[in-house]
Write the structure tokens for this entry.
Amino acid sequence: MAFDLSALGSFLRSDDPPEAGGYPDPAPRVGFFTDTSVCIGCKACEVACKEWNAIPEDGLTFTGMSYDNSEHLGASTWRHVAFIEQQRPMGAGAAAGGSAGPVDLGMPAMPGGAGAPAAADDGSGDRTGMRWLMASDVCKHCTHAACLDVCPTGALFRTEFGTVVVQEDVCNGCGYCVSACPYGVIETRKDDGRAWKCTMCYDRLGAGQEPACAKACPTDSIQFGDLDELRVRAQARVEQLHEAGVPEARLYGADPDDGVGGDGAFFLLLDEPEVYGLPPDPVVTTRDLPVMWRNAALAAGALLTGLAATFLGRKR
Ligand code: SF4
Ligand code: SF4
Ligand code: SF4
């Protein structure tokens, strides 16, 4: 019996997530565009996610890391708002190599805040020499999702919307997905051992509603919708920011030719991805599996041939 290993490769590397999920007539692929330039760090998204999905609290600890008490994505943190403090002037603009401040990005000024009238500034619009970057992180719902590739029980599956969902009642807690995810998103919960992550509110999508986090975001930093439309909108926003003197604005995860085939949840960042704790060049960790399987099959074939030759030689 001949095995077609190329079929395995195309299964693992499909460019069309809904088709890969086995849906003959899928809905348009949906996703998130998170524009971090207008995030105010209110954490309404984190709270809405917890409320809607009945997620247990994740420690309630004071980390001492700015206002970031949830630290990172995890089994009980499906949205995480990162607070990054940088010793970099606000409002200095491109000429000084700095970032435009919140007012320049269309954000409201806060009394005493970085965007406030510059009572004691140095002429750059900055009074602190600091800036805050805030970014609401989430599962990327990758086009090539390694978590889904390695799941042995089918607990992880591709939905008709092109998103990636884990079913807690099918998960056996093996943890393969945890080590496979190139972003460190999915995690097993310590008390029950099963893997958990953002479902892009699969239940709400099925009812024609937008995800809870996007619904709760007061600044539209989290935008939900048709993925192709979001990519066009995001590119226009980057160009708008460049024209406004924010040359460091860039998209992350929006390129269908990147190492994961593009993310279903992508971001507009104001600095390098590493600053936000994101891998600069993520690659689907199952990328080399077809080659590895082919090499293993060839090695097994060569071994069997050698054994057969030895056996037949002895009989003569
Ligand atoms: S980010 Fe990780 S958990 Fe989310 S779909 Fe991609 S591989 Fe899976
Ligand atoms: S889409 Fe739903 S599950 Fe995912 S982070 Fe937002 S609220 Fe949570
Ligand atoms: S993404 Fe929206 S809801 Fe979440 S912290 Fe930022 S502004 Fe608030």
Residues 109 and 115 are 5 Å apart (CA to CA). The pocket of iron/sulfur cluster (ligand 2) is lined by residues 48-49, 52-53, 78-79, 138, 198-201, 211-213 (CB under 6 Å). The chain has a mean pLDDT of 84.
